[in-house]
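My current task is to audit a protein record that another person submitted. Thanks in advance; the entry in question is below:
***
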Amino acid sequence: QVQLVESGGGLVQAGGSLRLSCVPSGSFFGIVAMGWYRQAPGKPRELVAIVPSGGSTNYAESVKGRFTISRDSAKNTVYLQMNGLKPEDTAVYYCNAVYRRTMGGISQSWGQGTQVTVSS
């Protein structure tokens, strides 16, 4: 099982920036994709951004041009740079990793979530 540790959330004023980080640990054969999701109170969890290994990134329409996802392959760390934050970006942000198990097959793991609050 892969564990994901997130950091970087917090409180910021509208227009500000935050950077989230997610580091996987545990035994796995390789990363298929890593991404960030978010869940606001009373709403379903939604994809924010995803970066497949060897593929192009994909973003939710609501964050295009403001958020950037990147991955350090050597460290298997994924980042989410969030600029121009808006109050509607307020949510718990979750890191997700899809990975190949050492014994074969593919699984996914979720981080514990980090709160991002944007004040107006």
Q: What stands out?
A: The two ends are 39 Å apart (CA to CA). The chain has a mean pLDDT of 95. The CA atoms of residues 3 and 31 lie 13 Å apart. The first strand starts at residue 3 and ends at 7.
